[in-house]
Amino acid sequence: MRANLIDKYKDEVTSFSESKNEPDWYKQVRLDSLAKADELSLPKYEKINYRSWRLDRPGVINADSEIKNDNKPQADNYIYQAGNQTLSSSLDEELSDKGVILTDIFSAMNDYPELMKKYFMTKVTKAEDNKLTALNAAFLNSGIFLYVPRGVHINKSIQAMFVQDNSVDCDFVHHVLIVAEADSEVTYLENLVSTGSGYKNKANIVVEVIAADDSRVHFSALDQLSKDTTTYLSRRGCTGNNTRLDWAIGFMNDGDVIGDFGTDLLGEGSHTEAKVVAITTGDQVQGIDTKVTNYGQHTIGHILQHGVILQKSTLTFNGVGHIVKGARGSDAQQESRVLMLSRKARGDANPILLIDENDVTAGHAASVGRVNEDQMYYLMSRGIDEKTAQRLVIRGFLSSVISEIPEKDVRASLTQMIERKLINGQQ
Amino acid sequence: MSTLEIKDLHVSVTDDEKGEGQEILKGVNLSMSTGEVHAIMGPNGTGKSTLSQAIMGNSAYKVTQGDVLLDGKSILDLPVDERARLGLFLAMQYPAEIPGVTNVEFMRAAINARRDEDKQIPVMEFIKKLEAKQKILDMTDEMSERYLNEGFSGGEKKRNEILQLLMIEPKFAILDEIDSGLDIDALKVVSRGVNSMRGDNFGSLIITHYQRLLNYIVPDQVHVMMDGRIVKSGGPDLAKKLEDEGYAGLRDDLHLDVKLTDEI
Ligand SMILES: Nc1ncnc2c1ncn2[C@@H]1O[C@H](COP(=O)(O)OP(=O)(O)OP(=O)(O)O)[C@@H](O)[C@H]1O
Ligand SMILES: [Mg+2]
């Protein structure tokens, strides 16, 4: 029999915590989570089988990486992390004066213990949710905390760049905690990239967004982890009354990735739009499970997922809309569509509606199809070759998320990412 | 000078419901050279759009007999994009909408598709050209920045087809009902655009139901198509005559056994 995680990793986790000068309360969270991980099982997602990826087997968590490429976001308010380190960050003085916090997760534990104890893995994602969230809490080795106090409206976007390093043997266990207090507003944009080669690593990333009453949060992400990185990526949020929480996620990784996205619509009258676009190439597998649960009355949850599958890859979209009993006047809509560009590709779009209340509206659309022939013909009739025409049509198909990205240069870089991935996949 | 020749062209479409081929074009003959404008008129459903699609290479239309030659060489084995790069252009009756791709980007891609990798059109040159062509068509930058045809009104789509024509500068342009749905001012503008292309290096085949368009774009020849064939050709006067007498009159003059859609 395999040794318990707690017996095997207790010393390593303790000494890592001490090397980071963590407060005792977080050291205890790590050890408790480690003990829980032994009891918990892997999260289950319809039609996505990833057991063989061994995401539940921890690797090295502490290694010094030397990141040379400078990927600093071009923004006034940003944080730039590589491997376990924070390379630089910046926040307008005016915002820090108002109490906005943008810092790495370890500083946050020491400097803002009350906020961290109140929000870290307590409201949205909990360590005891499943084995992978427990491991995230136990082995955490990087991350950030973004806090927007009550009534503060940030009109410029806050950008984060996270670089995962495959030139060293080290897991990337990352946690992003975003808290938008009542009546606040923030637009956040994160980039997730890999660098280096030589090692195959695992990434366990948990993002939590707590959006309080009357707040507005817009979250965008551009994900491009490499083929050497096998990943569990959870991005979930919860809402207060009349909150608006929107997601725009560009899932452009090259490795095997599970995406667990969604929102718990807790507050009355809150609204979420979750949009995901994905491309798979080579023989990679990406599975995305986006779940919105309507708890509050008169809540609105919309899911839109568009994906393109090339070569021998696999892409699965689950869209889960759940309206609980009592959530009267709520609305759950979803659309999941995949385009298959190769006969060897595998794709699935599964709409799942769980409705426990009568006085609601709900609907779904799902399809697995091929590139629109009329559009191809039109473009080619202007002299554009077949592959280029195909990329243009696909870009149109993915535009629902592209147009959601708030910054023009980031929009352009998503378009480039799509172009790069499609060109690779067309070979 | 370039030539476009259509010889004894027979074209079938496969009916999705019945699953069997149906012959639409039953031997079309037509020759034209750059420097000329030809007009095709004819009742609904006689195969005018079918002819234009078959020339362009739409795979829904199967050529069962005959040939289409550009400068003496058959183009029937070539895919759509190659035909376009050889100099053919089709302004479609129903242009597709493509979200996520701006007009500007699309037109630049279309122009660059005709140029060598290392001789792509410089940005300034492109913008200057675009501004000049937009001006001819009374169009604004706003429309060029929008996604290709997405949410365009019927008239805006037509105007946009002509903008592409002016930007791409093909040898031969087939304009399929470019006047339908245009108000009288737009009709003049679009005609001005087409006329600006006229010259020794440009030929056009204009499909229309209305003689009015031919007052603005005066053709060298007018052809009448009925039941998959060209049944009469003549000068601009032929269009006026049709306007006065209708297709039934011409059919009876020619002793044709053709049923027109509007007859009971
Ligand atoms: N893709 C297609 N599939 C099935 N039938 C078709 C197709 N395209 C054309 N047809 C049929 O071929 C015939 C000729 O159509 P076509 O569109 O060429 O006519 P047209 O002369 O352009 O008419 P209109 O003046 O109404 O535009 C019609 O009966 C039409 O229904
Ligand atoms: Mg027609």
TrEMBL record, chain A:
<dbReference type="InterPro" id="IPR000825">
    <property type="entry name" value="SUF_FeS_clus_asmbl_SufBD_core"/>
</dbReference>
<dbReference type="Pfam" id="PF01458">
    <property type="entry name" value="SUFBD_core"/>
</dbReference>
<dbReference type="Pfam" id="PF19295">
    <property type="entry name" value="SufBD_N"/>
</dbReference>
<feature type="domain" description="SUF system FeS cluster assembly SufBD N-terminal">
    <location>
        <begin position="88"/>
        <end position="159"/>
    </location>
</feature>
<comment type="similarity">
    <text>Belongs to the iron-sulfur cluster assembly SufBD family.</text>
</comment>
<dbReference type="InterPro" id="IPR037284">
    <property type="entry name" value="SUF_FeS_clus_asmbl_SufBD_sf"/>
</dbReference>
<dbReference type="InterPro" id="IPR055346">
    <property type="entry name" value="Fe-S_cluster_assembly_SufBD"/>
</dbReference>
<dbReference type="InterPro" id="IPR045595">
    <property type="entry name" value="SufBD_N"/>
</dbReference>
<protein>
    <submittedName>
        <fullName>Iron sulfur ABC transporter</fullName>
    </submittedName>
</protein>
<dbReference type="GO" id="GO:0016226">
    <property type="term" value="P:iron-sulfur cluster assembly"/>
</dbReference>
<feature type="domain" description="SUF system FeS cluster assembly SufBD core">
    <location>
        <begin position="172"/>
        <end position="397"/>
    </location>
</feature>
<dbReference type="InterPro" id="IPR011542">
    <property type="entry name" value="SUF_FeS_clus_asmbl_SufD"/>
</dbReference>
Automatic annotation (TrEMBL), chain B:
<dbReference type="InterPro" id="IPR017871">
    <property type="entry name" value="ABC_transporter-like_CS"/>
</dbReference>
<protein>
    <submittedName>
        <fullName>FeS assembly ATPase SufC</fullName>
    </submittedName>
</protein>
<dbReference type="InterPro" id="IPR010230">
    <property type="entry name" value="FeS-cluster_ATPase_SufC"/>
</dbReference>
<dbReference type="GO" id="GO:0016887">
    <property type="term" value="F:ATP hydrolysis activity"/>
</dbReference>
<keyword id="KW-0547">Nucleotide-binding</keyword>
<dbReference type="InterPro" id="IPR027417">
    <property type="entry name" value="P-loop_NTPase"/>
</dbReference>
<dbReference type="InterPro" id="IPR003593">
    <property type="entry name" value="AAA+_ATPase"/>
</dbReference>
<keyword id="KW-0067">ATP-binding</keyword>
<dbReference type="InterPro" id="IPR003439">
    <property type="entry name" value="ABC_transporter-like_ATP-bd"/>
</dbReference>
<dbReference type="Pfam" id="PF00005">
    <property type="entry name" value="ABC_tran"/>
</dbReference>
<feature type="domain" description="ABC transporter">
    <location>
        <begin position="4"/>
        <end position="252"/>
    </location>
</feature>
<dbReference type="GO" id="GO:0005524">
    <property type="term" value="F:ATP binding"/>
</dbReference>
<comment type="similarity">
    <text>Belongs to the ABC transporter superfamily. Ycf16 family.</text>
</comment>
